[in-house]
Amino acid sequence: MNATDMLLDVRGLRIDIPTPKGMLHAVRGIDFSLKRGETLCLVGESGCGKSLTAMALMGLLPRKALRRADMLNFQGTDMLSLPERAFNRLRGDRMAMIFQEPMTSLNPALTIEQQLIDVHRQHRNVSVKEARERALFLFEKIGVSAPTERLKQYPHELSGGLRQRMMIAMALMCGPQLLLADEPTTALDVTIQAELLRVLRNLQEEFGMGLILITHDLGVVSRMADRVAIMYAGEIVEQGDVHQVFNRPSHPYTRGLLECLPIPGRHKHMTHLPSIPGVVPSLIGDFVGCAFRERCQYAEERCAAPEIDWRQLPDGQGYQCIHPVDSFGAMHSAAMHEVSR
């Protein structure tokens, strides 16, 4: 990757949270990067550390959470050494985030207009009129009907889809280079979900933003991602081009996720879908070896070794497992086809 194309470079990110039972190792040394105009999807079960990763990048972790990393570089800026005031200037300006639930992220006591204007003027030396024009411009881009009337409304007066559009507009008020979206279509119906994803993709292409999209929906991943990182128990267990990962899943957990998808012709009507047995292990206290081994049909004694090697394939796809990819056999190509529909 050309150094000038690099937008974000994360190495060895760790997040620890003190609890009454001991230290919770919520994110355990993950590496990923993002270039300009690229979409990276973080995928995994609830509690695997996806949202905490985004919060760590935005500097919005809970007060007791401890963030450490070997590198946290955004466009040449070392975010690990940034003082709080400098981070405040970066956050909301060059980096922005769309949160999962807009009703708890928007201020119920202020109109949409007040909130959007405040965000823009916090980072730009512009008049109220200019900020309002920027908001109306973005409303047009994201397909908001009657935009002037919407500005005067309060969050509770809007539907879920419109509130999420307001969050998108707020995130884009300053034209960020990096946009993080934490399950932005959760709790929306399928039609609204598809519209919002189309809006995000169009805006990303138009403004050349890098996008980190957090989701557990593999259908969303197949439509939106350039690259995908599969997270499990605070670690990235597989990462690569989305077509590579979906057509040749190389970690048993990735294979398990894809095999749980309903595919016509593979699963009979009214039968139970496959599932991954067991539960995610506790990450409180010391933990070594592969976190997935208690649920994995391929597990061996050496899966409990302190270090599990990261296997890098020639085409750039990588995964963390003791087994070579050929030992699992090939995943049926129908999985990728059906997920992409």
Provide an overview of this structure:
This protein is of the alpha/beta class. The protein has a domain at 1-94 and 214-341: 3-Layer(aba) Sandwich (Rossmann fold), CATH 3.40.50. It has twelve helices and 13 strands. It has helices spanning 50-58, 84-90, 102-105, 112-123, 128-141, 147-151, 160-172, 190-207, 218-224, 242-247, 252-259, 334-340; strands spanning 6-19, 22-35, 39-43, 66-68, 71-74, 77-78, 95-98, 178-182, 210-215, 227-232, 235-241, 310-312, 318-320. Strands 7-8-9-3-10-11-13-12 form an eight-stranded mixed sheet, sandwiched between helices. Strands 1, 2, 4, 5 and 6 form a five-stranded antiparallel sheet that branches. Helix 4 (112-123) crosses helix 5 (128-141) and helix 7 (160-172) runs parallel beside helix 8. The longest helix is centred in the middle third of the chain and has 18 residues, at 190-207. It is globular. The two termini are 30 Å apart.
